[in-house]
Write a structure and sequence with these properties.
- This protein is α/β, with parallel strands linked by helices and about 450 residues long.
- Among the domains are: about 160 residues, 3-Layer(aba) Sandwich (Rossmann fold); about 130 residues, Rossmann fold, CATH 3.40.50.
- The protein has 13 helices and 12 strands.
- Strand 6, helix 7 and strand 7 form a beta-alpha-beta unit.
- The longest helix has 26 residues.
- It starts with 6 loop residues before the first helix and ends with a helix.
- The protein binds glutamic acid.
- One of its GO terms (molecular function) is glutamate dehydrogenase (NAD+) activity.
- Belongs to the Glu/Leu/Phe/Val dehydrogenases family.
Length: about 450
């Protein structure tokens, strides 16, 4: 990252981080995703008019909480993990965003993810600010009991800053409905009353919403259809390549396949599988359920090495794994027409420029993957009113919100001659900073 980040941004980050005496692993030579986000803010600032006097608000999280999460292991030893909850902005509503359990979680990453939630929530106009949480842990190394103790202790450590009208966590990488159920239960026990609205992405039996599990992938599909229409790509027969086959990539692949597209390549942490005639997506799901990943799938014609994935020719490419996958190194090799960012932050700003020059239409994360938090919003509303909607109602409302957001972003991009990412940031940051301005400073 170092060499690709402009000096002024590096200085900003270095000053910012040093002045707050953040932990040493977050040094300015390894800016990571937060540096990536700051560059995106630099790009939108010239388009904010008078609101740019508030733009500094977006360059620093409102609140950062770092917590030690100790648990007793099954063998009786004590293990400590570092966890975070970052509330980036709350001008438009309570904090909202997922919790990630991953061995590579850093504060820089959680800060960036929280900021992208601020932008995402404003882009689809749900009444939330942005927040994110995470624990640096490989959950595959924990037993179910250890995972439960970790989740409950983390919830207790952040319980003073979360709540149904304060900050509402949700699933993200390696967290699921069960983890949300434990978080909801822990928070409710601490508060002494049932508090279903404190997290979203819960099991249906516990105030969860129909359609939430599929919502992010469905949203990727909906904006993909819109983008394809603009770019003159037929979904029927389109060649689709997907990185990540979890809750986002797996669902998106199924939906594109259902609409007649061929899934020609899938990559995850276990391998890269390719079939020119189209992978059998249902069988691939079965294989993943049995083995934990796509690697070794019998229905693949070829298994490529990791980097070769980016050179596969496609009409639609869906990065749906982790951030900073598409860089100035591999972006020149990408041969696709439309890229739908199912993951958060998969593309560095330098790669963005290369893709634009190569005429790849990039639908950015803060728009493309907003379907998840949109149905989280529906879940939260349903919990408050204890009145639950049908799956058809949810899907219809989700589709309408995603289509309207895409169309508004498209219009801004045309008017200002900017990328869809900058257009989304223009719309979203304007909403956030208008709220910031009209609220005014306290005291
Ligand atoms: N973790 C998801 C995201 O990155 C969903 C967050 C939520 O539903 O609050 O958008």
């Amino acid at each position: 990252m170092t060499k690709t980040v402009p000096a002024d941004v590096q200085n900003n980050v270095a000053n910012h981080l040093n002045s707050h005496a953040l932990p040493s692993y977050l040094d300015a030579n390894n800016l990571g995703p937060w540096g990536q986000y700051l560059q995106q803010i630099e790009r939108v600032t010239p388009h904010l008019g008078n609101l740019s006097r508030w733009v500094e608000t977006l360059k620093r999280p409102k609140r950062i909480l770092t917590v030690d999460v100790p648990i007793e292991r099954d063998d009786g030893s004590i293990a400590h993990f570092e966890g975070y909850r970052v509330q980036h902005n709350m001008s438009r509503g309570p904090g909202k965003g997922g919790v990630r359990f991953h061995q590579d979680v850093t504060l820089s990453e959680v800060m960036a993810l929280s900021a992208w939630m601020t932008v995402k929530n404003a882009a689809v106009n749900v009444p939330y600010g942005g927040a994110k949480g995470g624990i640096r842990v490989d959950p595959k190394t924990l037993s179910r009991g250890e995972l439960q103790r970790l989740t409950r202790r983390y919830t207790s450590e952040i319980s003073m800053i979360i709540g149904p009208t304060k900050d509402i966590p949700a699933p993200d990488v390696n967290t699921n409905e069960q983890v949300m159920a434990w978080m909801m239960d822990s928070y409710s026990m601490i508060e002494g009353n049932l508090s279903t609205g404190v997290v979203t992405g819960k099991p249906i039996s516990l105030g969860g919403s129909l359609g939430r599990r599929e919502a992010t992938g469905r949203g990727v599909f909906v904006v993909g259809r819109e983008a394809a229409a603009k770019r003159g790509v037929e979904i029927k027969g389109a060649r689709v390549a997907v990185q990540g086959f979890g809750n986002v990539g797996g669902v998106a692949a199924t939906m594109f396949n259902g609409a007649g597209a061929k899934i020609v390549a899938v990559q995850d942490h276990t391998g890269t599988v390719v079939n020119e005639g189209g992978l059998d997506v249902a069988r691939l799901h079965e294989h993943v359920a049995e083995t934990g990943g796509v690697g070794g799938f019998a229905g693949a014609e070829a298994c490529l090495d990791r980097e070769a994935f980016w050179g596969i020719e496609s009409d639609i490419l869906i990065p749906a794994a982790l951030e900073q996958q598409i860089t100035e190194e591999n972006a020149p090799r990408i041969r696709t027409k439309i890229m739908l960012e199912g993951a958060n932050g998969p593309t560095t700003p330098e790669a963005d420029d290369i893709l634009a020059a190569n005429n790849v239409l990039v639908v950015p994360d803060v728009l493309a993957n907003a379907g998840g938090v949109t149905v989280s919003y529906f879940e939260w509303v349903q919990d408050f009113s204890s009145f639950f909607w049908t799956e058809d109602e949810i899907n219809a409302r989700l589709t309408r919100i995603m289509q309207e957001a895409f169309s508004a972003v498209w219009d801004v991009a045309q008017q200002k001659n900017v990328s869809l990412r900058t257009a989304t940031f223009i719309l979203a940051c304007t909403r956030v900073l208008q709220a910031r301005e009209v609220r005014g400073l306290y005291p």
